[in-house]
Every structure is written in C-alpha cells, then in structure tokens.
Amino acid sequence: MKEKIGILCASDTELMPFLKSIHPLRTVKKAMLEFHIGRVGKINVIMVYSGVCKVNAAIAAQVLIDFFHVDAIINAGVAGGIDPDVRLFDTVISERMVYHDVSDDILTEYHPWLESNYFPADPVLLAIAREYGSTAMYPVLFGTMATGEQFIEDENRDEINQKYAPLSVDMETTSIAHVCHVNRIPFLSVRTVTDTSTHKGLENFEKNCEAASEISAGITLGILSLLERK
Predict the structure, then answer these.
(1) 150 forms bridges with which residues in the sheet?
(2) Distances from the Cα of 78 to the Cαs of 22, 85, 90, 108, 213, in angstroms?
(3) Which of residues 40 and 12 earns the better pLDDT score?
(4) Which of 51, 139, 193, 226 is the most buried (most CB within 10 A)?
C-alpha cells in the first residue's frame, strides 16, 4: 500500500493545500482532468480534483486505479456536519460510508451485491488514521459519512440523521468508496466541516472552505507520513 497513493479532492480549493505542500514532479491530463504526480517521503502520490458530484468523483477514482495503478485512495476535503454535536472545523474520518439518496436494496440486490448498503473504510488506513488522530492538533472524529447529490441545509437533515446517523454529509465520498470496493482498492476519507446545523448554508460553506481544506490536507499528510514509517 505504501508505494502509490491517490489523493482525490472534489474542488481546486480542496486540492490547493496539497499542491503547496507537495511540489508536483509532472502533470498528466486524462479524462479532462489534471493529475499531479509528486512524493511524500518515499510515497508516490497522484493528486487530482474531480469536480463536484458522485459521477465526477467516480471517474477520477477509476482513472487513478486503471491508468496510474494506485495502491490506495484517500479522499480529502470538506463536508457538512450533520450530527448535531459536530462543530465547525472538526475533521471526520470515515469508518463507513453510505448513499443517503439511493434505495436501500439497490446495492444489495444488484451489483456489487453488498451485505448492507454501507461501504467500510480500509482497516489498515483507518488504524493509522486513529493513531494519528490521537495526537492531531485539530479535533478528529470517526464515524459514518453520508453522500448524496444535494447540499444539505434543513431539507432531509432529520431524515438522514434518523436513518443513517452520519457525522458528515457530502457529494462524493461514497461514490469513491464504491469504485474502490469493486476494484479491491483500500480507501479512506478525510473531511473537515465547513457548515453545521447551527452554522448552515452555502454562505458558511464558502466562508470556511479554504480554512477547512487546509486542515483536511494537513491531517491527510500526517496520516501519509505515519503510513510511510510503517
């Protein structure tokens, strides 16, 4: 797993802290996306922002797997805090991931025939993240992430909480987990919160996105540094 890691972000804002920390050795264009190749210590990294939404993220993930032959993918960036106890700039790391806008039986009755509609995070990456999180400078939480094709304000918030009890909600994570699952590629998501039930709406997301992206990138790079030493 150490040799080549894909870092997948949804937006250029979320990717920028990585590009400031890791000077790209070269850039490759594929599927209308730019993949930046660099190194974190002995680990080769391929960094990309996919664009927002499930399909865009899935495209980028499949290119990382098929063309760059990554050994694992980490999704880094920002999310909305949906659990009432999650605060601004908390970082949520995935234990498991679920679509909140897909019928429960779609993924169990049809491909990829899951036992439940949850995708688990890779246990090795998750264990390293827990080790790093115990000493991180910022609050790190571990739990469920929910994904769907909408920005959550008040609409559906209670329903999502009651059904899935996620800590955070976003528009990409579970689709990347889905792609990694069917390709048997280890996956982890690291998302820092820009908006919550008490600080909600696009205004808070836009105001906090840059700072939250910096935190998420810092935690992701910390996890990679710890991974390198394993």
Answers:
(1) none
(2) 19, 17, 10, 29, 6
(3) 12
(4) 193
